[in-house]
Amino acid sequence: MGARVLLVSADQDLMARVEQALADEGIQVCVAQDLLEAILFLDREPCDVVLLEVDRPGPEGFAFCRVIHRSWDVAVALLLRRAAQRDVVLGYQMGADMHLNLPFDPQELRVRVQALARRVQAVRARQATAGKPGPAMPPALGTAGGNQR
Prior knowledge:
- The chain is 46% helix and 17% strand.
- It is of the alpha/beta class.
- It has a single domain, classed as 3-Layer(aba) Sandwich (Rossmann fold).
- A five-stranded parallel beta sheet has the order 2-1-3-4-5, with helices on both faces.
- Helix 4 links the parallel strand 4 (75-80) and strand 5 (98-101).
- The longest helix is centred in the C-terminal third of the chain and has 25 residues, at 106-130.
- The model has no long low-confidence stretch (mean pLDDT 87).
């Protein structure tokens, strides 16, 4: 599949669990330990999915979700330690494509990341071919070169 994931978290245990869950599927996991490091990474490296750990009260992580959504062509998955309904709703309002409660099931993480990465890669492929000329179309009826009465 060749997917590339950026995990934004300072939690060493979470890093290890995410890498272990995704490595067997050939998904490359890169890590940013804070928001500034994540911005610098996204500006210089292509990525399909951002796994954004939101573990502190307050809008910082959710606001960064909006920044990612507006600035880069990637899917955003929130990793939530506190799964209050208002946090889930706020995450989606800020541009998240999905959320996963922590601790996560490794198989669920794998399939969700693969689905997001497939979608992002398909959109990019369509965008890349959108500007290229397609096969020549025959002239429409009633136009110059078409059958006219």
